[in-house]
Amino acid sequence: MNPLVPEAIYGLLPVTVRTSDAAAGGALLDLIKVITTQAQYLDADLEQLYDDLFIQTCAPWAIPYIGELIGYRPLRPIPPQDATARADVADTIGYRRRKGTVAVLDQLGFDVTGWPTVAVEFFQRLAVSQYVRNHVRIGNACVDTHGFQCAADFDSAFDTMPRTADVRRIASGRGRYNIPNVGVFVWRLAAFGGATLAAPDKPVGSAGIGTAARVGAGRYTFDPFGRDVALVNPSQPLAQSFAVTQRANVPVALRRDALYVELEARHNGGGSQPQFFGDPPVFVVYDGNRQPFPLSAICCCDLAGWTAPTEPGIVVSVDPELGRLMFAGAPPDPVRVAYAYAFGGPYGGGTYHRPPAAHEGVAQVTTGFASVDPATLQQGVFEIADSGTFDGPFALTPAAAPLVVRTADDARPIVLGPLTIDAVPGGSVTLRGLGVRDGIVVRAGAASASSSSSASSLAVTDSAFTLNVEHCTLCGPLVWTYDGGGSLTVSHSLCAALRVDARVTVSVTDSAVDGGADVSPAIIGADGASPCGELDIAASTVLGTISARETVLIENSILSGVARFERTQAGCVRYSYLPPGSVTPQRFRCQPDLAIDAALASYRTSAGLAELDGATVALRVEPVFTSRLAGAGGYLQLADAGPVELAQGAESGDEMGLFHGMYNVRREANLRFRLNEYLRIGLEAGVIHAS
C-alpha cells in the first residue's frame, strides 16, 4: 500500500467516520487529498535532492554547481544541443585522471568538437643524436624508403619521418617539430555512407546501397550523378573511451596504392590484419545476383584514362581517388555500390538522418516514383526507401492539398531526368532528401490553366502555390514559370541556379545556390533576364549574380557575384559578403565595407602611408573556398588561407555562408580553450586541419 494515496489513507479510518464524512459532503476526504498532495510534492523533492547529488541524474540547474565543485570551466555552447554541459562535467574527472596523455587529447578533441581527432607529440618525431652502441632508435634517425606508406603519410597525422627542430610556435600555425609542441589533427569533413549501412540483413537497394552512374561502355562512377568523387574511409567508432585513435577511426581519403597492396596480399593468401577490407570493408560492389564481388575479382588502380588491367580473374577495377569503376566484361544491371564520401555537413540529398515533421504523420513507403500510381501521388506523405536511381522524366500532379515526398533515413534516391511539378492554386509540395540530376520545373497544371481562363481576376493569394525543397541536391536549375504566385523555400540543400517568376517569394536558408561562375546568373527571373520577386537569404552561399525586385533580410551569407535589387528603400543586408558593385538596401557590418572602413581609419591616423586603394582591400577579403567543384569533399568550405573577416564575420562570430550552422569556428575555439587544461607543464598545442 502506498501511504501517499488519499484513498488508501482514507480507508484506514473507521467506517463510522467515513459514513459521517460522506453524509457531510466528504470534507474530511478532501482534506486528506490536500495533505497527501503536499506530501507527494515533499517526497518528490526529497528524491530529487538525492538525485541532485549526481551529475547523471541532477536537475539542469544543479549542473553548474557540481561543475564549480570540481573546477569545471564551461565552454561556449554549440546549438542545437546546448541546453546543458552535463556530459562535459561528467567526463571531467576521467579527463583529469589521464591528464597529459595522448589518449585524453584524442578523446577530448572528439568530445568537445565532435570531429575525429588524432593528437601527435611532435617531440617524439625529432631526429636526435644517439648513443649507437647501447641505445639505437632507428625510427628517430632513418626514413623507411622500402614502401609507399611513408611517402603517402607525409605531413599527415600518421607521418613517422624524423625531422630536425622547428623553433616556430605551433600555436601560430607555423611550427610543428619541436620539444614543447603537440599537434591535434582534426577532420572537419565528415564521412557519409559506408558499407556499415549495407549490412547483410538489408536487401540490396535499401538505404545506404546506391546505384553507380554509367558514363560509358563498362565505365561507372560511384557518385550517382556521374561526377568524380573521391572515396574516404568510413570512420569507425573507438572500441572504448580514451583509446588512441587509429587510421580506421578517421575519414582519411583512400589511396590507390594502399588498397592495391592490401588486395594483392589477400589475393596471395596473406594473413595480415586487414586494414581496409575487413568487416566492414571501405567499399562494396555488388554483382548481378545482389551479392558482393569477392576480393579476388577486384583490383584497385588508376582509371584516369579509363584503362583497366587485363589480369585474369579481375572483373571490376576501382579507382578510389577518382571514384570510378570499370568492368572487364558485361557489368550487372544496375551496378549497386556501397561507399563513403566526405562533406562538410548534413546538406543536400545524402546518407544522414532527416527527422520528419511532426505534423506529417504516417507515410506510404515506396521504392520510387515509378512504383506509385500517378493518380495516387497527389496528396499525403510518400517515403522513398530505396537509394537507387530512377530514370525520368517524372511529373508530379498535386491536388489542392499538401503533398510530401520524402526519403527514409540514410536513403539517397536520385532522379535522372527533369522533375516537373504541375502547380495548382492552393497546392503545396514538399521534397525532402531527393537528388535530381536535371533540375525541377514548376509549371501551370491543367487545373491552373482552366482556373485562370475562367476567372482571370483571381487574386494572387488565392492562386498561390508552395514548394519546399529540403535537404535536396539539384544538379540542374530550378525553373518556376507558374504565374499564379506563391512561395519557394530552399533549406539545407545544394542547388544549381534558381529561375523564379517575379510573383513568387523566395527564401534560401542554410543552402548553396551555384550558378557556375561569379558572373553567371544564380538567382534571377523565370525568363533568365528579368529580376525575380522578393528574395530572402540566411546562412547560405550563392555563387553567381543575383537580380531581384526586393529583399527583407539577407544575413550571415556569402554572395560571390554582384547582387542587384530594384527596391532599396526597405530591407536590410547584415553580416554578409557582397562584392563591390552590388546594389542593395542598407547594409550593417558587411564585407568588404568593414575592411575598407578599417583601412581608411588606419590611413587617416597613420603617417607616411601610400594612398589608400579600396579595390586592393576588397580583393583581400574575397571568399576563398577549398573547392568550387560540386561533389568535392571541400565544396564551398572556406579555405584556411582565406580572409578571417569571412571565417569569423557572422553575427555569432562564426563563419559566413553555407556552413554557418556547423559552428566550426566555435568548436575549434572550445578545443583550444580546453587543451590548455590537459597538457603537461611546458607543452603547447596547436590545432591542425586534416580536412
Automatic annotation (TrEMBL):
Species of origin: Paraburkholderia terrae
Native organism taxonomy: Bacteria, Pseudomonadati, Pseudomonadota, Betaproteobacteria, Burkholderiales
Taxonomic superkingdom: Bacteria
Protein's recorded name: Phage tail protein
